[in-house]
């Protein structure tokens, strides 16, 4: 979205327990604080007090034209996050509402797998324009994806489409294409939910090596075949948002457990 479509993009890493976005985006260190901008947050986060009990906003880190915020910026080495739901929700609020994002065209929230606190908190707190589901082709992976789809529907969040990750492997020597994780599962799931497969990403060593190095293929090889796969996904997602009328989605329901 940023490199191919030229959009102003923010990226929020909502995986508090396993943040990986800092490595992918080649970003390190704690965010700086803009004491000129403030917001109100739960008292547990008021480490940098501002006027009337408000807290100064953090400045997102930026690389590849993407403004990024992740809890990984606050962790040292292999430090684990051994927190329960309320603390996870507070951390999420801190990053979402306590960041000076500036003017954005799109805020992408990278969610952890599952249907837990992070997803429910997000769906209840802000109006989402849509959700994109990502799955490998095999049925065992699609079990959780289908549950995720049902959760977003209950939260009244439109499904924008499915991305098939590790869709196929093309031999670098002979060009033979092999569907290592099977085929057809993502298409069947998309049909069941009346959505489209917005793109297929191949299983390729360059994606692995460049992601681990913090030099994603869309930035390091923007005219390559692999970058084109991601570019197609970005185009289809934006097309779906335009069709739905982005920003028109109403606040989701409030879910309580008794």
UniProtKB/TrEMBL annotation:
Q: Which CDD domains does this chain map to?
A: Mrp_NBP35
Keyword entries, A-Z: ATP-binding, Iron, Iron-sulfur, Metal-binding, Nucleotide-binding
**Does the record's keyword annotation contain NAD?**
no
Q: What InterPro entries does the database record attribute to this sequence?
A: Mrp-like_CS (IPR000808), Mrp/NBP35_ATP-bd (IPR019591), NUBPL-like (IPR044304), P-loop_NTPase (IPR027417), YlxH/NBP35 (IPR033756)
Query: Matching Gene3D superfamilies, A to Z?
Result: P-loop containing nucleotide triphosphate hydrolases (3.40.50.300)
**Gene Ontology cellular-component terms listed:** mitochondrion
Indicate yes or no for the key word tRNA processing: no
GO BP, one annotated term:
mitochondrial respiratory chain complex I assembly
Q: Name one GO molecular function term.
A: metal ion binding
Q: Which family does it belong to?
A: Belongs to the Mrp/NBP35 ATP-binding proteins family.
Tell me the protein's name.
Answer: Iron-sulfur protein NUBPL
**What is the originating organism of this protein?**
Tetrabaena socialis
